[in-house]
Amino acid sequence: MAVTDVLRLKTRSGFEGQNIYFYYNHPIQFVCLAGIIVARTEYVWRTVLILDDGSGETVEIVVLKATSPESGNRASEKGTVTRAPAMKAAVSATDSAMQEERHHVSSRTKDRIDIADLVPGAVLKVKGTLSTFRSVVQVQLERFTLLRDTNAEMHFWDEQARYLVDVLSVPWSLEPEEVDQLRREADEEEDRIIRAKKRLEQKKRKAARKEQRDQIRIQKKWEKEEELRRKEAAGYTETGKKA
């Protein structure tokens, strides 16, 4: 896709929270773009790259950061996030040492990725998921490839043009057999969820009955022991009186 196409993607009711957008009636979850990085800004928990593909628009490529497991207490890190200011100012050079323990990760798999080469002037192809921030579509980086020469760039433009003509420009539709198959799969998934809920409820009821039986058994045992103690106490009292 071109950046201009990405920025024109629309959302539809019924798909809220799924990060699924639409190009006409084509559902889009991943996009692939190519261009040059014109800016890079470091934030506490992410790096934002500005990608220009020459289509007349630019788009933000967001690269998430995670904290290394050995870098300290997780609770304190979460607390730091909570106390962070709402306005996302760029991290200064004096703050860079504080960020060394954080590494970049892909958007979905959370695999570690190295974006040291992604600086202004670098030409690359990126793939990522979509999200919206302040009514503007962003790309959450999943993976990337540096384009080392013009031939690689031209190959991407050719792929992009073919995909636009052969796929995106053709109305997306499903054959009746595919619709039936998807409906069966949806029904099976719904049945599976219902069965799982029933099993969970049965397990909870079984555990509750077992707990109730244990309580009754403990109560009876306590009453039996209490009765025995009363009889023993009465025996001691009777023996004392006879003495």
UniProtKB/TrEMBL annotation:
Residues 224-243 are annotated as: Disordered. Keywords: Chromosome, Coiled coil, Telomere. CDD domains: RPA2_OBF_family (cd03524). Residues 179-213 form a coiled coil. The keyword Coiled coil applies. SUPFAM superfamilies: Nucleic acid-binding proteins. InterPro entries: NA-bd_OB-fold, Stn1_N. Its main location: nucleus. Residues 113-201 form the CST complex subunit Stn1 N-terminal domain. It is found in: Chromosome, Telomere. Pfam families: Stn1. This is CST complex subunit Stn1 N-terminal domain-containing protein. It comes from Paecilomyces lecythidis.
